[in-house]
Every structure is written in C-alpha cells, then in structure tokens.
Amino acid sequence: MTLSSPSAADNRIVIGKAGAPHGIRGELRVIPLTDFPERFEELKQVYVGDELLDVASVKYHKQFVILKFKQYPSREEVAQLTGSLLYVDKKDAMPLEDGEYYTFDIIGLEVFDMDGVSQGFVTDVLKTGANDVYVASKKGEAKQLMIPALKAVVKEINIKEGRMVVDMPEEI
Fold this sequence. Notes:
172 residues; mainly beta; Elongation Factor Tu (Ef-tu), domain 3; six-stranded antiparallel beta barrel; six-stranded mixed beta sheet; 2 helices
C-alpha cells in the first residue's frame, strides 16, 4: 500500500494547504493533505514555503485543521499564507507498517523483472481505488508499464537499494 503525500523539496513532504483565515484571532484553516490528519495534534513547527513557523495551537472544524502560528498574530497577517502549502521534514514523516510506503519513496525506484532485466523507473503512482498502480518507463521511451501494486505482482520493494522487482502476468 502506498500512502500519498506529495513531495516538496528533496527533504520535505506536504501535509496541508492553507485556506482562508478562521475568525479574527489569526487562525488559519488548513486542508489536510496527509493520510494522517492526527499528525497536526503533535505539530510544533511547520514550513510554509521556506519559512519555519511555530504552531501556537491546533483545533479542528469540519474538514479543516485550524492552526494558529506565533509569527502571525492577526487575521490580516495570516491571510498572506492563503494558498500556500505546509511542509514537514521527511524525517518527521509518520512511521508506516511493514509493506507500506510513501509515494515519494516509490517514485524513482528502478523496476526489474524476475530475470533481473531493468524495465525502467517508477515515474508516477496512480490511485485507482482498489489498489495503486505504479507507472514505469525507460528514459527516452514513450511506452509505459502499468504495474498493479499487488503482492502477486510486486515481489520486492527495496527503498535503500532503489529497486522494485515485479513478476508481470503475460496478459498485462
């Protein structure tokens, strides 16, 4: 299973998008863009662009997380952040269970068939509902290989070595 969290810089992941100010005390609505919205409860700092902000308070309202930052005490000041993405360092990513990976870990893996022949690199992860589909292609080629993220097909994922081994059925 792959959990989505779009990549920002090489060392950060996106966890939310700033919406409109909330109320008159400098609070900001945030749309969570993480599979772990509870992560906001423990959040002490967050990047908005390249600015590291201190989180003063966190609460929830409907589908939004309401954040207050120490550096933005008023509604007018926090309004400047509307539309910005919120990031945390990758090292602060929520831990995953065995066999679960973040999308940013999967993209870029080299794909090998069972004979050890390179089939290209993962360039995208499609969310289909039933299971993810890894899109792989070789540099300079338009042909794409669609790899269902199923245990019967994906035999090995090794993030440290940057490789994935697949056993593709003949009909694919």
